[in-house]
Design a protein that fits this description.
The protein is of the alpha+beta class. Helix content is 36%, strand content 25%. The protein has twelve helices and 17 strands. A seven-stranded mixed sheet has the order 5-4-13-14-15-12-16, with helices on both faces. Strands 2-6-3 form a three-stranded antiparallel sheet. A hairpin with a 3-residue loop joins strand 13 and strand 14 (192-199). Helix 1 (5-16) runs parallel beside helix 5 (97-108), helix 1 (5-16) packs parallel to helix 9 and helix 9 packs antiparallel against helix 10 (308-337). The protein is globular and about 60 Å long.
């Protein structure tokens, strides 16, 4: 269930194992659209396994290093491009969500059931199924919940609503930019953050984060003058990027996550991506971890081809600790970014500045580490059987 990056990547790899796949998605318009997103080396490694890496690199721009700055532009940390490539596995890249979804959709070639919201999960013995809003039932040997942070499959497998509102909102946009090449960067103020990532075609993907009590949840757009006023004193090119963005293309969302689960699977059903481990966007790892899930899941299914529940337990054992740790880290980073007392912000910035580069590089190397791809054939035409 779900035609986002996690669902489509899983469908691609299941087809490689000669599975018959049906992908159901609640959106009647289908996958695509959306704003910008960032991909880090672990995501690009996963896309190479899916045979979509070259196509995604062609429509994305590598950043000129990675920086953390204060609101006034003082650099707290900076890792140059050559260090990112030589010691961290590569650079981050930004692109439009639709530019990622297109190659995944082409390679998935699965049966798509659009406008099909799952309302209930059925399990009996070794069989599993999903009841759709129109009353249809999709049944089979395996159910993969890739239906996002509000996952119906998750609720069907594990009772309870553990959604956490984190107290801040994010506005995202894409702006034309004609200045010098930028590193990927995050700037931190008092109760506010601003991130920017270079894109192809003289564009920059940016986001602005600020405290919110849930009053933005029902908005589909935000007042640009209000946003400019909030970030008017920030370093260049923050104000320029906001000013150059079409307000009708800005996307605003309240940030939520969920308490990490101890289990992701039950019987022949499991979770991937945001359905399994939704996290705050502060590390830029949401899509990256979703792609890692797809590879780990299908690798375990290839290993345990006759015992699906055992394969799912192997999958969550391989992935859960890493994904849940990143969820906790992103949660903490979001909290730090919303500190608003000037003395607390000054102390936070001093602590960030004091982190040795070697420690930062080691942390990124672990985050961007290549994941195992054992048991997966390299190409569709090498699939077993």
């Amino acid at each position: 269930m779900g035609a986002g990056p996690a669902g489509l990547a899983t469908a691609v790899l299941l087809r490689r194992l000669n599975w018959d796949v049906v992908v159901a998605d609640r959106d009647p318009a289908g996958p695509g659209g959306g704003n910008g997103l960032t991909l880090w080396p672990n995501a690009l490694t996963a896309l190479d396994v899916i045979d979509a890496g070259a196509e995604v690199r062609a429509v994305s721009e590598p950043a000129a290093g990675l920086a953390m700055r204060t609101a006034t532009g003082d650099t707290m940390q900076f890792v140059p491009q050559e260090v990112m490539v030589g010691r961290c596995g590569g650079n981050g890249r930004a692109l439009l969500r639709g530019d990622l979804m297109r190659p995944l959709l082409v390679r998935a070639r699965a049966n798509l059931c659009l406008g099909s919201r799952c309302t209930k999960v059925l399990q009996e013995g070794v069989s599993v199924g999903a009841v759709l809003e129109n009353g249809d039932v999709l049944g089979g040997d395996l159910l993969v919940g890739a239906d996002g942070i509000g996952s119906t499959v998750r609720r069907g497998l594990f009772d309870g609503d553990d959604l956490r509102h984190l107290g801040y909102a994010v506005v995202r946009g894409v702006a034309p930019y004609a200045g010098p090449k930028l590193p990927a960067q995050l700037s931190m103020g008092c109760g506010e953050q601003f991130g920017m990532f270079p894109m192809t075609g003289g564009r920059v993907y940016w986001f602005a984060a600020f405290g919110s009590r849930g009053d933005l949840a029902s908005r589909s757009s935000i007042d640009k003058d209000w946003l400019l006023g909030r970030f008017s004193s920030w370093h260049e090119p923050v104000g320029r990027l906001i000013s150059a963005t079409d307000p009708n293309r800005m996307v605003v969302s309240e940030i939520v996550d969920r308490t990490p689960l101890r289990r992701w699977s039950r019987g022949a059903a499991t979770l991937v991506g945001d359905a399994a481990h939704p996290s705050a966007p502060t590390l830029g790892q949401g899509t990256c971890q979703a792609l890692e899930d797809a590879i780990a899941l299908t690798s375990c299914l290839a290993h345990e081809s006759t015992d699906i529940p055992a394969a799912l337990l192997r999958y969550e054992a391989r992935r859960r600790r890493r994904a849940n740790a990143l969820t906790r880290q992103a949660h903490l980073m979001g909290r730090l970014g919303q500190w608003s007392h000037p003395m607390a912000c000054w102390l936070r910035n001093r602590l960030i500045s004091a982190v040795p580069r070697q420690l930062q590089v080691n942390q990124m190397r672990q985050m961007f580490a290549h994941q195992r791809t054992d048991n997966l054939p390299a190409k569709l035409d090498q699939a077993p059987g």
